[in-house]
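Possible regression after last week's pipeline update?

I re-ran a chain I had predicted before the update to compare outputs. Posting the input and the new output here so someone can diff against the archived version. Not blocking, just want to make sure nothing changed silently.
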Amino acid sequence: MNPKSSGFIELYLAELTSATKNEAALYRVRELWWPGFLKRFAKDPSMAVDTLDLAMDDGRDRLNKMAAAYASELGFKPNTPKYTQRVTQFLKSNTGKMFERFVGLAIAHALNELKSPYCILPFRSEYVPLCHGAEKEWFSVQVTLGNKTMQTPIDADLFAFNPDSKDADIYLVSIKSTLKDRFHSVPFWNLLRAAAVSGSMNHVTAVQKDFLQKLRYIAVCSDLAEEQPDFSAETGPRNLIALDAALLDGAYVSASRAKGLGSDKLHLGTKRNAAFYPLSSLISHLSA
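New output (post-update):
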């Protein structure tokens, strides 16, 4: 096991073990979802990472009770429209935030257990320098319009890298608990990166071109919608979502009911023959 990657992962996992109620999303992940995930992972690692929603189901009743308590604390009476609205808002808001953290921590645990040379961390300023002394600005793209130049770092939730290899690919990871219209913004970042390194658009440039060329932009999602799920057809998701995924370097799903996912080893880049693959495909790739 690479001691660097293991040490960085342990640093990340420590955020989970030390989370207090003030760090609501992490705390709830630990209390509601993490025990079920660990039990499933011990039995079948691939199944566990491909079905994170099953661990989420384990904590459904307790999360519903938290939502009800939140609405009551605000002074709304049960079975009234405003009470129901607050409960729904609580569940939607917290589920998305918790899922983002759950995915990262589940990947980190899997990489650690499988002795991967890669580590994965939140894409936050305090963690970026661990990637071979990188700076957040190195992930940035500049766009010039007339006399005005705008700059922004490519947005992501997580990033994965090999601490022992400066030349290895770096993966920026965007996480979505559901797709629908929210997924359409994700490919923008990869298209912006591609434009900056290709030179095809003179007014779009990379702050650190050599560094940006090592990046691969991928997405991890689930399919939590009870009505109109995105991955209910054997042929794959609807065309527009598949197009979004095709504009990424890779797209992965963790959902027990998901259909239409790819199964071959070519799950990254333009040669893959499916838009989405199980999350375990990414884990296997980073652990090879």
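Follow-up from reviewer: compared with the archived run. The CA atoms of residues 170 and 216 lie 6 Å apart. Marking as no regression found.
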